[in-house]
Amino acid sequence: MKKSFAALLAASTLFSFAPLTAYADHQEGQKNVEYVALGDSIAAGMTPYGDIDKSYPDFISSYFKRSNVSLKDYDNFGVPGYTSEQLKNDVLANPEVIKEIRGATHITINIGANDLFRKLMTDPRNAWEGIEAAKANLQTILEKIDLLNADVHVYVMGYYNPFSYYDKESQNFLVPLNDALNSAIEEKAGSNGDLYVPTGGKIDSHFEKYMPNPEDNHLNVKGYKAIAKQFWHVMEKDVK
Length: 240
Prior knowledge:
Its EC number is 3.1.-.-. By secondary structure, the chain is α/β, with parallel strands linked by helices.
């Protein structure tokens, strides 16, 4: 089913709104992990049918548990509909988020798609403003994380193509914008010494399998597991 760009403008937001024993803590080769996930509805685990299910951070937490580590804490702050401005405000001023970042060993982030999508909904001619806002806010987010916790490992996600069901003419306009957003995310991750995790290569060629509802661009649980595997491929070297 092909959709037109007009359908996009009528749509809702893109990614809408106990301690272990002393023995376990000291097993040879074991390390403690505290994992924090930040992001929008992709981090929250929103499905193509509007409910919340197992998210990619949930799968990552299970991978930690299967590794030679002690997962002491896992906090998922993914919020459906979140923009980079909202996440920036949390990182700068939300006491709970700040506390967990300070104690984290590993952080995953996905943010920025809603900045772009909201501009597309209001005035497509200003779509680049959404990308620039996401880029600037991500810089602030990553800088603040470094100030709060200089030793934490940070991994920043690039988005899959959420426009796969749209007609060719619409995709000719929309896909380069998504690519530009990912380029901005990759640039900011690299310039701050963090790792960029692309997901399009895993999702886009199988979008009907992972994004089965033509009227919604969220992934199913299989899609989130695929994203988690992409993250883990990058993260596992920092766990050993």
